[in-house]
Prior knowledge:
The chain is built from nine helices and no strands. It has helices at residues 6-16, 28-41, 46-54, 65-70, 75-84, 92-101, 105-116, 119-123, 127-144.
Amino acid sequence: xxxxxxxxxxxxxxxxxxxxxxxxxxxxxxxxxxxxxxxxxxxxxxxxxxxxxxxxxxxxxxxxxxxxxxxxxxxxxxxxxxxxxxxxxxxxxxxxxxxxxxxxxxxxxxxxxxxxxxxxxxxxxxxxxxxxxxxxxxxxxxxxxxxx
Length: 148
């Protein structure tokens, strides 16, 4: 089987999230780029970088679970994407356990958390949102055994 190249995965992710913005109103693709760059900077594999590009695609309904299942991607990429995809109603401990149990997913989530918790990104949010998200990200980091 011929798998999608990293450039193709990036293109698909950018197209899928093209109309989406983050909580600060910035293009969501900036977050995807930052997470992929963070995975690369942390020594991640091509599979982890591909998962970084797609890490929010199913959770945000930018791409369907059916698309992911049928996509020409290695099984580890699909597993990492699903590991970091929050399930509605799922508690944080279960979510963290799934990430830890999936090879390669921790690095993707670590990069995602690093960008989400970036002080510059958080500074533009209202105080209540900033506090809520800071606490949420700290709890996930704790459950994943990542330094603060």
